[in-house]
């Protein structure tokens, strides 16, 4: 990869490439990443493609029916959970903020439903030094 990372997402795109987004880099100082890259299995190469809207790890990335990827939640650079949601458009090669979840979540699930909506459920939220388990769910349309 173009940068060492853990706790990132890897999403298989419709064209066979893999979107790798966010995560945490380990080194002298640990830090969350706002970068993304594409892996091309045909050439075996990784290419940096710019930044996601916010630093995040422990988030989800869900391939939608239209080929875009919904990136939701996770931990921000300060360790607090985030509720930010964005879309990656592989045809344009861009990330676009698309709103917020009702609560900040990390370690949650995101499942594409048959009607095209994404069910985002569970996880927890780290807020003010306290983990708050999320016993709720919401839909992205």
Structure report:
With 141 residues, this protein is an all-beta fold. The protein is 0% helix and 47% strand. The protein is built from no helices and 15 strands. The strands form 5 sheets. A 4-stranded antiparallel sheet has the order 1-2-5-6, with no helix packed on it. A 4-stranded antiparallel sheet has the order 7-8-9-10, with no helix packed on it. Strands 11-12-15 form a 3-stranded antiparallel sheet, with no helix packed on it. It is globular, with a radius of gyration of 15 Å. The chain starts with 8 loop residues before the first strand and ends with a strand. The model has no long low-confidence stretch (mean pLDDT 92).
Quick overview of this protein structure:
The protein is 0% helix and 47% strand. With 141 residues, it is mostly beta strands.
Write the layout of secondary structure elements.
Elements: E1 9-12, E2 18-21, E3 24-25, E4 31-32, E5 35-40, E6 45-51, E7 60-63, E8 69-72, E9 84-89, E10 94-100, E11 109-112, E12 118-121, E13 124-127, E14 130-133, E15 137-140
Antiparallel strand pairs: 1-2, 2-5, 3-4, 5-6, 7-8, 8-9, 9-10, 11-12, 12-15, 13-14
Top keywords for this entry?
47% strand; 141 residues; four-stranded antiparallel sheet; mainly beta
Question: What is the share of helical residues?
Answer: under 10%
Enumerate how many helices there are, as a single number. Answer: 0
> Nearest-angstrom radius of gyration?
15 Å
- End-to-end CA span: 32 Å
Low-confidence stretches: none
Strand content: over 45%
Walk across the major sheet and give the strand order: 1-2-5-6
Please report the total strand number as a whole number.
15
Task: Name the structural class.
Answer: mainly beta
Order of helices and strands: EEEEEEEEEEEEEEE
